[in-house]
Amino acid sequence: MARTREFDEELALEKAMLLFWERGYESASLSELLKATELSRSSFYEAFGTKRDLLLATLARYVNSDMCGLAEPLFRERASRPEIEAFVGNMIAHGLCEHGQRGCFVNNCMAELAPHDEEVLAAVRMARQGLERCLVEVIGRGQKDGSVPNRGSALALARFIGSSVAGLNLMAKSRPGKAVLEDIARVTLSVLDNTSN
Amino acid sequence: MARTREFDEELALEKAMLLFWERGYESASLSELLKATELSRSSFYEAFGTKRDLLLATLARYVNSDMCGLAEPLFRERASRPEIEAFVGNMIAHGLCEHGQRGCFVNNCMAELAPHDEEVLAAVRMARQGLERCLVEVIGRGQKDGSVPNRGSALALARFIGSSVAGLNLMAKSRPGKAVLEDIARVTLSVLDNTSN
DNA sequence: CAGATTCTGGACCGATCAGTCCAGAATAAT
DNA sequence: ATTATTCTGGACTGATCGGTCCAGAATCTG
Questions:
Q1: Based on CB atoms within 10 Å of each CB, which residue in A33, A75, A99, B35 is the most buried?
Q2: Quick one: angle between helices A51-61 and A105-112, nearest 10?
Q3: Which of A125, A170, A174 sits opposite B170 (nearest CB)?
Q4: Which nucleotides of chain C are near protein (any atom < 7 Å from a CB)?
Q5: How far apart are CA A101 and CA A174, in angstroms?
Q6: pLDDT at residue A3, rounded to an integer
Q7: What's the CA gap between B142 and B149, in Å, rounded?
Q8: Is A197 helix (H, G, I), strand (E, B) or coil?
């Protein structure tokens, strides 16, 4: 009775996300968005609504897939110290790769939009807390199995790791080189071995 | 022989910086800039050139004054462990204050512009390295006077502290509350006590 | 005073912005 | 073939963008 949808909405969403991720929200213009998604103006608005609607959609998509890409080790069954190391290792690798200057999409939105957009703020907080909760669990497991000698508050450690990794991601935007990122990562991880408090 | 300049260029520069700082580069429009600086369109262009010229000028200004505001303890004579603590304490206080969501202007520029603007990238790198060098010196002094028991590479520790503080500043944009920021700061500083490596 | 400079305010520019709308082509199910 | 839906492309809007320019008022020095 009706024509079937021809374009892959999911794919278009991903293309749009990549553009927002790479260039930020403000500087990604609608015409660039159209080119990237290969959608006509009409189809674009029909599918996604306003530019900001789309941003929120891409943010949700990122949290539910891409973020879990680099953070994937943390979400494994019985993840412990080795998975934290893998997580941080992924961040270094990402910071050194061709598109490393993109950083983390959530952090980008936090920097650019969260201070002036309540909805983005809420989404970004959710993402941050999701990672934090996951880290608490993994660190707690590491403390139990002995791979995390530091007996301090798992929550505080999780908050620290989350923040420090965000810092590492941000630093990567200035392309400081492998040595710098590795220094940061190594010292960050050394906290897990600290038994002095 | 000629009329004297009536407006305070330095003051206007500061007002412009505050706007860029608060709202980012792209979303700070020229008309807002004019309102903030209280300059006529003509005087504005005469004094500062293009919007991007002004951005670079404000960035330079920030590095030479405001950044050294919060980081001021580090630049004191014979700064050591207590000054590092004061530095981090300043960051927490700033993150909790009314304008804490502004974060660090250098980091904001790093996030928004550095990936796509070579000049901003260069300026931001300079700023980062300046802080890094300062931290190396202070940490080294702390290692000598015993206030920093960690005997690891002062350079690596400096890079770590710089990155972690950047992370803390970024986190503050989501207004996570005092407890979170203090957790991050406390664990970060605990690294200086770590003697296990 | 005269002459030099700075300031203001607004006209003006072309470009682009995000977003709306529609006519018509394409494609489906009945 | 009919009908319903989707798609395309472009026309169009009003607003705003960053930036240029100029005429005239204001303010200084000599």
A1: A33
A2: 140
A3: A170
A4: 3-11, 16-23, 26-30
A5: 7
A6: 64
A7: 8
A8: coil
Is pTM beyond 0.85? Reply is yes
Chain B residues whose CB is inside 8 A of the A196 CB are 190, 193-196
Mutate which of B88, B118, B164, B175 to test chain A, going by most A C-beta atoms within 10 A?
B164
Residue type, A71: A
Residue of A nearest to B168 (CA): A163
DSSP string for B70-115: HTGGGGSTT--HHHHHHHHHHHHHHHHSTTGGG--HHHHHHHHTGG
Angle between helices A51-61 and A9-23 (to 10 degrees): 100
What pLDDT, in 10s, does the model give residues A14-44?
A: 999 999 999 999 999 999 999 999 999 999 9
- The token duo for B150 is 């960690």
> CA B141 to CA B135: how far, in whole Å?
10
pLDDT 10s digits, B57-76: 999 999 988 666 889 999 99
> Which residues 1 to 30 of A reach strand D, CB within 7 A?
1-7
Cα–Cα distance for residue pair A96/A172, rounded to 1 Å: 7
CA distance A18 to A74: 24
Instruction: Tell me which residue of A15, A24, A188 sits closest to A104, measured CA to CA.
Output: A24
**Quick one: pLDDT band at residue B23, thresholds 50, 70, 90?**
very high
Q: Is the pLDDT of residue A12 over 60?
A: yes
Distance CA A94, CA A193 (A): 25
